[in-house]
Amino acid sequence: MAEPIVFSSPDPTMRELLATHPQLTLDVQCGLMLEGVPLLAIADEMGTPCWVVSAGTLRARAGRLLGAMAQAGLSVSPHFAVKANDHLAVLEILGQAGFGADVVSGGELLRARKAGIPASRIVFSGVGKTDAELRLALAEGIAQVNVESAEELEILSGLAVQTGREMRVLLRVNPDVDAGTHAKITTGVAGNKFGVPWDEALELYRRAAALPGVRAAGYAMHIGSQILSAAPFRAAYARMAELVRATREAGLPVSVVDCGGGLGICYRDEGEGSPDAWAGAIRAELGGLDVRLAIEPGRWIAAPAGVLLSTVVLRKAVTGGAPFIILDAAMNDLLRPSLYDAWHGIVPLSPRDAVAEPEIAAVVGPVCESGDMFAQERSLPRLERGARVAVLDTGAYGAVMSSTYNARPLAAQVLVDGDRWSVIRARQGVEALWAEDIVPERIRSPV
C-alpha cells in the first residue's frame, strides 16, 4: 500500500467542510442537503453509487466568474472545458449562462452541439486531433482551432484546402511557466506534450499566416489545472503579451488571445482560486493589447457542484490499526484519488452519523486494486455498515472519467435544481456491459 500523504494541518471537521461548501447544509432532521434536496432521499430512491450535480451551483459560479471579468473591465468569450463534465444537462445549463465550449475531441464537439451550443462558440484544443476530427471542425464551422504543433498546422491547412473551407487558428504556446500544481495536471512547462515552445511560436505564426485554408488570428495558452495563486497566470500572460508585441512588430496581425483556464477550488483547506485575482492578472498583462480575450474554465465552475453518494458495505477491523471503511463506490467511479492522490471531503448523509464521535479510518472501494482508495488515515465520524456518505467536489473529472472496470455498471446521475431533482442518466444495467461483445461462432461452446 502507498504511503499516506501527510498534511501539515488536521483534516477539516464536517463543520469546517460545510463552511467552504455553501451549497451544502446539514438539516437536523433531513441530514445533508444539496440546495433544497435531502441527499438521503436521492440515495434511498436511486441507490448508490449515485452522482448528484447542483444546477444552482453551476449557474452561481458561472455568473460569479463572468461578473469578476466584467468588474475588471474585461470583455471575454467564455468557453467551458467540456472534459471536466460533458453531461448534456450541464452543458445546456452553462450554455444558457453564456458559455461556449472548449472541446478536445470530435465527440465533445458533437456533444456541445447536441446541447445547443452554437458552432461559433466552440474552440477545439488538444495535441492529437485526427484528420476526421479536423474535418468535422471545418464542416461545423467552429470558432477556432487551437493548433499545438507545426505538423498539425500543415495537416489542417491541407484539409481546409481539400474541403474548400477556411479555419481561424490560434497557436497554443507553451510559455514554460510552472503552475505549481500536481505534475499530472501541469501543461505549461518545458517537456510537457502541450503547445508550441515559446521561442518557436513567432516563426510558426509567420508560417501560419502564409498557409492557405487557415487564418492566423492569435495565440492560446493553458498552463495547468487547480491553480490557486494569480502569480503563475501573471507570469504566463506576461510572456504572451511579449509574444503578441513581437508578432505585431514583425508586421503580422494578432486579434485574439485565449487565456486558458486552470483556476483551482478548495478541496480540503487550501482556499480556492479567486476569479477576481484571475481577472486582475488578465487585465494587468493583456488588458492593453487591443485583442479579443477568451477563457476556458472547467473545474472551478463544475467541481463544487457535484457529489458522489455511496453506502458503507462493511467495516473491516484491523488489529492495532485504523479500520477500513469499504464503500460501494470505487476507483472505477471516481478515479481522482487513485490517479492523482487527490483529497476529497467525505461527509455522512444522516444527521445522526454526522455527530458521531470521530475516528481515524481508511476509506476504500471494493475494486480489486490496492489503489482503490478514497482516503487514508482520515478523521471521520464513525461509520457503520449501511451508513451513507457524500464524496464532495466531484462535479468535475468525476463521472466523466468513470469506467466499467471489474464489470461494475456506470452509476446513475441526478440533477438537483432548487427543491426538485431529476434523473439525468439511469443506472447502467448489468446486461449492457456485454451487450455489444461479439463471440465468433468458431469458438462458441456447444449448447
From TrEMBL:
EC number: 4.1.1.20
Modification sites for N6-(pyridoxal phosphate)lysine: 83
Annotated binding of substrate, by residue: 299, 336, 340, 369, 397
Reactions catalysed: meso-2,6-diaminopimelate + H(+) = L-lysine + CO2
Protein name (Swiss-Prot/TrEMBL): Diaminopimelate decarboxylase
Subunit structure: Homodimer.
Keyword Lyase: yes
Alphabetically ordered keywords of this record: Amino-acid biosynthesis, Decarboxylase, Lyase, Lysine biosynthesis, Pyridoxal phosphate
UniProt keyword Lyase present: yes
Function: Specifically catalyzes the decarboxylation of meso-diaminopimelate (meso-DAP) to L-lysine.
Residues reported in the UniProt entry to bind pyridoxal 5'-phosphate: 262, 296-299, 397
Pfam family, any one: Orn_Arg_deC_N
Co-factor requirement: pyridoxal 5'-phosphate
Domain Orn/DAP/Arg decarboxylase 2 N-terminal, residue spans: 71-303
Top-level EC class as recorded in UniProt: lyase
InterPro entries: Ala_racemase/Decarboxylase_C, DAP_deCOOHase_LysA, De-COase2_CS, De-COase2_N, De-COase2_pyr-phos_BS, Orn/DAP/Arg_de-COase, PLP-binding_barrel
Pathway: Amino-acid biosynthesis; L-lysine biosynthesis via DAP pathway; L-lysine from DL-2,6-diaminopimelate: step 1/1
Record-level Gene Ontology MF annotations: diaminopimelate decarboxylase activity
Family membership noted in the UniProt record: Belongs to the Orn/Lys/Arg decarboxylase class-II family. LysA subfamily.
